[in-house]
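Run log, item B.
One chain of 452 residues. Sequence copied directly from the ordering sheet:
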Amino acid sequence: MPTQSISQISTTLVVPVSRPANAKERVHLTTWDLNFIATPYIQMGNLYKLKPESPWSMGEIFDRLERALAEVLVYYYPLAGRFVTEKVKDSDKGVFTYIDCAPRGVEFVRATAKEICVDDILRPLFVPHFVRDLFPLDRAVNLQGHISPLVGIKVTELADGIFIGCSHNHATGDGTSFWNFFNSFAEVSRGVNPITQPPVHERWFSDDSPPPIVLPFNKIEDLLVKFLPPVPKVAIFHFSPESTAKLKEKANKATGKNGTISSFQALSGLVWRCITRARGFPETDSVTCHLAFDNRARLQPPCSPNYYGNNLSAVMSHTTVGEILTNDLGWAGGLLKEKIAIQTDGSIRESVVQWLNNRDKLMTVHSCMFNDHNIFFVGSSRFNAYGCDFGWGEAVAIRSGSCNNLDGIVVTYPGCEGQGSIDLEISLAPDTMSKLLLDDEFMSATSSTFLS
């Protein structure tokens, strides 16, 4: 499908309809927020099928969503602001960044693509190239939030449906925050106001990291790193409830410890093994698997599930090509489980201290992580992605934009039928993807990717 088939109708800046009485003037960024300051925006979007007898015209749908966005921003008012970076007074070196909550506006784009059908997005194994054009603020880096909107919404009319793409500045919030916002936006669209899960804007700072957190640079642009261009092969793989249950059973049977390895840990171990095999590196090469996890419930006292901001950490499991391929699925899943199990309030706080002590190397870590010996699991099958009902039913699929299309990134979504099903959006170099599709261990665990 040619890119030019997507036509932009208009772009507007939407501000909150009112300002809460307790609204903050500024929101300081935490260590977790700053960790994403030079990375791309989060880009996630939902695909909806419209019934032929839909009671609304597309113009009415556009207007309805724009009004709902203005209303939900009353709760998420920092998203209408912009970043501000200031130099530390009386210091030769040092800057700090915060969100100035003065309402500058969120981008709202109306577009049409009447040559594209829902099935053109839903059915293919490989994500079509044009999907990235269904998102606003494409290729935006979070640092651009000083000038660009912190959030953009692009609503595209399709031949028989709608795609609602959202680009969300990752330095303002993580995946949990993203989907809480998107669900609240959907609630207001279908007339639920007040929203059921209002965000908590009190950011978490430890005693070791009171705001503002100073970065030892002359200017914030010193943090910019060059990211690799997106890889062309991005595929969607579906794992049914039966498949994930079998993987869990197989992994735990191999370890002899019933139920200790979760379904997702077993699936992650499988993907790590099979991608490593497809890459074909020597047995002595080191390989790493990165898993992100939510800190909210692990901290003591725990943070609210509605905490708005970044509140996540990542663990890294290291091994060699020979070890992961020689050992069984239970071994790989157990390696991942061990890393997650030791993440406690104490270890999370210690990681914050380590970050503060190495803040000068903040983004050099990000630039070296993206190589072909690593894989990264992002997203979660626990996100309420399909609950985003804007008034015309649940989504039929979830897709991400070009921000995630780097070699070795695995985006995790809940499967559309629920009940433990999982969808993985995997980005790989073309040769590696071709070999993965021929891997019997991997493909025997997948279900049809052509979902209805």
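Observations after the first pass:
- The mean pLDDT is 92.
- The chain has twelve helices and 15 strands.
Flagged for discussion on Thursday.
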